[in-house]
Amino acid sequence: MTHSSRADRAQRFHFSAPTGMTAGLAGLVMLFGATVAPVSAQTVIQPDEGVDDTPLQLFPTAPAVEDETPEGQIDQPEVPPSGILSEDLISVERLSGIDPDTVGLLDEGNGGIGIDMWQGTSRSRLQQMVRELPDQILSPSLRMLARNLLLSTAELPELAEGESQPTTQEGSLLKARLGKLMAMGYVQETLDLIRAADGSLEREPDLIHMVLKAQLLQGDLGSACALVREQEDNLAEAFWQKRLVLCQLLDGNVTAAQFGATLLQDEGIDDPLFFTLVERITDKRDNPLPQSESMNEVHLALMWLSQTPVPENLLASAEPAMLRAIAENPHTNLEVRLEAAESAARMGAIQTGTLAEIYKSVSFSQEELLKPLSIAQEEFNARSRALLYQASSIETVPETKALLVRKALELAREAGIYSLAVEVHANQILQLPVSADQWDFVSEAARALYAIGRPKPAEAWLGHLDIQAQRDPEAAEAKTALWALSRLASDSYDLDTDDAARRNWAELTLRTAPDQSEFVALRRIQMTYSLLEAVERQPVALAAWTEILDLPRTRHATLPNPALERLMADAAQNGRKAETAAWVLWMLSDTGPALSEPAILASAITSLRLAGLEKQAYDIAIEAALQNGL
Description:
- The chain contains 34 helices and no strands.
- It has helices spanning about 5-10, 25-30, 85-95, 125-130, 140-150, 175-185, 185-195, 200-205, 205-215, 220-230, 240-250, 255-265, 270-280, 295-305, 320-325, 335-345, 350-360, 365-370, 370-380, 380-395, 400-415, 420-430, 440-450, 455-470, 475-480, 485-490, 495-510, 520-535, 540-545, 560-575, 575-590, 590-595, 600-610, 615-625.
- With about 625 residues, the protein is mainly alpha-helical.
- The chain is globular and about 80 Å long.
- Helices cover about 60% and strands about 0% of the residues.
């Protein structure tokens, strides 16, 4: 084995598989079939011209979605394709020797917060804020805000007087950003950011652990094992020895793998799941798995090699990226894969197109496909959601398709997964012809289209509802019920008729609140008025607020630490964009827009707008409106 310096290894590191393939690798390809690298929706891997740079994939991603991929899902800003970083970024980075901490994949043109986003924030505070950002965020709008904050290119503020650079033990800002991206399940973005930050592996060699984890979770065992074999100086460490055993098994070198596993056992390494999985492969026996509460990327790869299903109990502790890998593991029970896929999609670790493909892979009897509504109403779980998706996909009669989609969205709203259902069914909604004959579908169609950022089609549906409302009382009531959302989503309205429409809507809200609960009605009215003022639509008249004075106060609510709101407001007023975004994430991430108090939510949205983050503020407002039944 040729020895080389860490600097040399870092310089030639390029995230690709070796062009040669051992007999063990070739056998694996024959066993599992040719596969395609699971690449995020924002990236496209393009190898250097004339070089076979295709990584060997262990975990095949689902087939590419053509007609049924939800085209209307919430847009995610484009990340520069892997291996094809923007010329501007490359030139600045390499010609100026820019600090890797400042490098990003997004600028203001494609979703970034702005190159000056940290100006005015102390270096020590920004480092701490990034390290402590929440990373398990179910709200799509808040998750996108966190993602874009972490991926933005940004200059760092000058060190304040008496302020020192972070110590080596604390780690760099880049490392903190990468750790958060991995924890959120943005595996490809993590690799792309390391690639963009030229020299980062030389400065912080332990980042190689993160690279290896990302490659294993993507099923790119070719690149992962090439990286393991470059660690000749570290292979005595248990961390690297375990991964070397995995690679030896992949090569078919059973004797070496057994020897390596024995050494680990002799050293007292306590990992029963690892050793049992190795024995399943080397001894070709289905030894029962030990009880375990968690697993890592090495366990998952060994489960794949040994064709061992992932136990359902391990889903609870699996991080988002792990959930994605489980969802794509064909040896695992389909019910477990469905649950993992839905959980990963809710946390942004997979695109909803992948979830839709997994939905389509579930087998149903003809009898089930003929009565999806009754099955879903009886038990609304991952399998019945897949059934509704399949039934609505193959349905050719527009009225019936609309009914299936409407029921799927209604049930999802009750189950608290409305955002996910909207994205999955977005393409089906967009395919439905806008028709006056389907006015009873208008409410769901308009809400869903506003949710995915398609106001024009939403307004087209509302136009038909306006016509029907002139002769049908039910349609007129449906139109009134949509006043709050349509008013929030559009700044086109008639001041002369708007207040009358508002009063009608408020009266309807009070009359139709679930269980006649005035608490629910008050929350919806307060939420509407607060959101309208926060996004700076026409201010709600004081008379409108006066009308709800006599309603009972809302029930007990969990409020954030008041210091958060004060610090957020100060950051916004002084134009500290990234700091404002971080305070918003801390303040809202526990409850999300769905459960936040209207006044707190309005304060956060107002702060984002004041800091110049208009789109992010609007996205949070629309999500809050939809999640609160407006």
